[in-house]
Amino acid sequence: MANQLDTALTLISAGLPVFPCRPGTKYPATQHGFKDASVDPEQVRAWWEVNPNYNLAMAVPGNMVVVDFEGNTKKELEEFICGTANHMAYPLRIGSA
Fold first, then answer.
1. How far is CA 44 from CA 33, 68, 93, in A?
2. 3-state secondary structure 25-59
3. Are 71 and 77 within 8 A, CB to CB?
4. Which among 3, 19, 48, 80 is least buried, having the fewest CB atoms inside 10 angstroms?
């Protein structure tokens, strides 16, 4: 299984800016949060050298939609993706977590 740094480096190689969050949270570990997001591999490595347990976050480009699915099973995810799930079981949250 890839660690957070490996995943961050994969994302930035695709041009997607990332930034670290405090371990176990969705709170940014940088002063300016998503505004500090970077595609610079040296910067990204430096962040994870400070704390290899940082969570990974991505600054979402304006032309992209992200769904933060927190189901417990593969079946729940398949139902969600296929649109067969009861939509009331999956509330829509707009904005940041």
1. 14, 23, 28
2. CCCECCCCHHHHCECCHHHHHHHHHHCCCCEEEEC
3. yes
4. 3
Q: Residues 21-50: pLDDT tens digits?
A: 999 999 999 999 999 999 999 999 999 999
* Contact criterion met (CB below 8 Å) for 39 and 28: no
For the beta carbon of residue 29, count every other beta carbon within 10 angstroms.
18
Dihedral, 41, 47, 3, 76 alpha carbons, nearest 10: -100
Question: What is the rounded (10 degree) CA torsion for 13, 18, 35, 38?
Answer: -40
Distance CA 83, CA 78 (A): 8
Whole-prediction pTM: 0.71
